[in-house]
Amino acid sequence: MKEARLFANVLIANRGEIACRIIATARRMGLKTIALHTPTDRGALFTRLADETVETPSYLDAAAIVTAAKAAGAQALHPGYGFLSENADFAEYCALEGIAFVGPSPEAMRAMGLKSTAKALMARAGAPVLPGYHGDNQTPKFLKERAYQVGYPVLIKAIAGGGGRGIRRVDNHVEFENALESAQREAQAAFGDGRVLIEKLILSPRHIEVQVFGDSHGNVVHLYERDCSLQRRRQKLIEESPAPGLPAPTRRAMTDAAVMAAKSVGYVGAGTVEFIVDASKGLGRDCFFFLEMNTRLQVEHPVTEALLGLDLVEWQLRVAAGEKLPLTQEEIVPHGAAVEARVNAEDPETGFLPSPGRLRVLRLEGVRVDSGVEEGDEISPHYDSLIAKLIAHADTRDEALAKLDAALARAVALGPKTNIAFLRALISAPEFQAGLHDTGFIDAHLEQLGATPQPPDACAALAGLAALLPQVLPAPAPAADGDPWSVTDAFELLGPRRLPFEARVNGKAERFVAIAHAGGQEIAFADRRAAPAAAIPPTVLAVEDGVLVMNGGRQTHVAAALLDEGDGSQASASDGAVTAPMHGRLIALDVGDGDEVQPGQRLAVLEAMKMEHALTAPRGGRVTLAGCKVGDIVEMGAVILRVGERP
Ligand code: ADP
Ligand code: ADP
Ligand code: MG
């Protein structure tokens, strides 16, 4: 019996969505599931789903994790992605303690772990790599000379980087030193390794990667490609397969190169070989270049699963137990098209600021949904902002996109702000539909995609006020004293009676009228603005201070009672306070007490949920620090410093 050789249990050294994903497969295969979690994640969905739980101070504490795994009697350990999943020392440590690490050998991880050594290896093996420098010399002067030789624009990249971090674009030599310093700082903070490489920047790039799989019997197959060109700040948002417009000979050359890369390091398990494709020269077979190999399962693996009808976590567990790959290359046949969208707790209208908090309502359906949270759960500010991945599959790309769009149109998420409306705008963008986009598409089309401050949603405002109406304006009662409807001077003498009132929509005061007529009551804008009809009825939820309304993927807050004038935002603008726009860690402070600054000058950098946010001077003047130091965790709204008015 094949099953007899599999593990009795598996410990998942990860959290959230991927932990839930692994638990589902392990359970189906009859393995006992052990969830490892931090104190912050006590009671999180993945811990509720698991058969057993064990605690660790951090997902990055290798020693504590291995000790906990041993104590729990874990036979196998699945690292998920992120955290320690690509840490060769950790894999080695597990092996030493007799725990099967679900992933490649430490040697393969080391060979591919750094972008620099991986590029050198691939270049020797004959795979196309971009011009650049990926050697040991890290002196700024030398690196700058190399950038000049490669020719601007170039990218500076952290060799230990991942998740789009530690990368800086440099367009000319005057920017080089600053960009280098900031790339090194970010790399040191995020990966504990400040070393960088220099690479030619491709101006019209598509990101196309190939999923590969190896077993311990020397077999390596590819599982076709994923196009992940829709990115924001070099992080993937929408991924799909097949890559639109990819000619068969190029696909062949790319999958061959990927299999060769995996074979060159004796790869076992799931891995992804990432390529950058120069779309300005078409998608010919000489236009792709090796970027890096991720020696783990990828966030976007469900795209491949949908395309091929496979379970990659099952393959991982079987291969880790020493079994052969379940299918040969010829037996792996793609069907139709698959596309995935990442629903994040972030606000596209305010520069994608992370928006943690309790998910008061969460309804996602109609397609495959991979999530680590349920309605009522908290999106923690301590980890990344992913709420769920929605994966659609159909016979054609157009149908898959339509299916995904329909699911997003019906999605309801209230509490944290989400990118649902933004994802819908992306999917319906003509350039994306035609497959003509590149990785710069989002940044170049923020306005078209609605990722700029938008006027309040009129339809949501009216829907919210309709729900609040009984609270603010008691229903017309037969001339009871104190009833607003009996205040005659507020009404027209003939026809429907109209009562003007004010409400706050997303914190901003607006004038409305309540209209009472024979058929009942309704609410309209006082300026007679008409609200467009909603395609799908808005969802309204009562909260402590008003209502939250979800309409067309956007969330609107409506409060009928007028709040005090001069609330926090006004005050901070006038006293020059620079406050934290979200809960996060202060990772740079560019100014000292008493420094003179110019309006718009960068003062500090805050990091939260894998994102960096620059805080800039609201006006020119002299700085007074408020006592925060680099490394401090600051709460949303905390004053970091003040810029005093020029005398
Ligand atoms: P991919 O290339 O597959 O998109 P990323 O490198 O962006 O992978 O990261 C993979 C995942 O790992 C993230 O979506 C997140 O779940 C997790 N992750 C990575 N880094 C961190 C981090 N610093 N903190 C929390 N989670 C992280
Ligand atoms: P990470 O480890 O952070 O995923 P990658 O090297 O894979 O780093 O690059 C992340 C993203 O940055 C790519 O998906 C692509 O959008 C962009 N990128 C990387 N290298 C280049 C390049 N040479 N030219 C243009 N864009 C690039
Ligand atoms: Mg990458």
Q: Spans with pLDDT under 50 lasting ≥5 residues?
A: 486-493, 562-573
Count up the domains. 5
Tell me which ligands are bound. adenosine-5'-diphosphate, magnesium ion
In the CATH hierarchy, the third-tier topology of the largest domain is known as D-amino Acid Aminotransferase, Chain A, domain 1
What proportion of the residues form beta strands (DSSP E)?
A: 25-35%
Question: How large is the radius of gyration?
Answer: 27 Å
Identify the CATH architecture of the largest domain: 2-Layer Sandwich
The secondary structure category is alpha+beta
CATH class label of the largest domain: Alpha Beta
Question: How would the global form be characterised?
Answer: globular
Count every beta strand, where a strand is a DSSP E run of 2 or more residues: 38
Number of helices: 17
Order of strands in the sheet with most strands: 15-13-10-11-12-16-23-21
Average pLDDT rating: 91
**Cα separation of the termini:** 84 Å
Oligomer: single chain
CATH superfamily of the largest domain: ATP-grasp fold, B domain
Biggest pleated-sheet summary: 8 strands, antiparallel
Q: Helical proportion?
A: 25-40%
Describe this structure in words.
The chain has 647 residues and is an alpha+beta fold. Helices cover 26% and strands 31% of the residues. It contains 17 helices and 38 strands. The strands form 9 sheets. Strands 15-13-10-11-12-16-23-21 form an 8-stranded antiparallel beta sheet. A 6-stranded antiparallel beta sheet has the order 27-26-25-30-29-28, covered by helices on one side. Strand 4 (76-78), helix 4 and strand 5 (100-101) form a beta-alpha-beta unit. Helix 4 (88-96) packs antiparallel against helix 5 (106-113) and helix 12 (397-410) packs antiparallel against helix 13. The protein starts with 8 loop residues before the first strand and ends with a strand. One adenosine-5'-diphosphate is lined by residues 130, 155, 157, 161-165, 167, 199-202, 205, 207, 231, 234, 274, 276, 291-292, 439.
